[in-house]
């Protein structure tokens, strides 16, 4: 291996070590659920889990919009961030979320890397991320400032399962099946 390749490998190893510390603040779970049942499972989780705020990641803005319409209610206000809204609207949405005008934020993958909210205690991968880096970016949003975080990934296909297995291997984190009851 060349000297340059060794430096890149060393930096990657150091970054992964920092990442492991970030991910260890979270309890990681997966939910095996058929694609067609994901929205009802999401409703069930939102109704049964105790949380301050939740961020839900989807694969695209159409899915984010549909979920926002399904979830948003006076009892559980939600908002949606996707590429179909202007940068100014995104900034205003983040501001509102930070001020607790909404307890749920649904984010389309295309704009997900910019989301950085302090008091989110649950992040849900409604759609499994494409790779381990995307998993890190999504779940690095939860469990900050001493808040214990919960990371939940919906697994609906063999490809989803492979991503979860890759995350466990790369970051040495255990992702167990979501138990029937979670101790808050």
UniProtKB/TrEMBL annotation:
InterPro entries: Helicase_C-like, P-loop_NTPase. It is an enzyme of class 3 (hydrolase). CDD domains: SF2_C_DEAD. Keywords: Hydrolase. Its EC number is 3.6.4.13. It comes from the Eukaryota. GO terms for molecular function: hydrolase activity; RNA helicase activity. Residues 41-184 form the Helicase C-terminal domain. The keyword Transmembrane helix does not apply. The keyword Hydrolase applies. This is Suppressor of the cold-sensitive snRNP biogenesis mutant brr1-1.
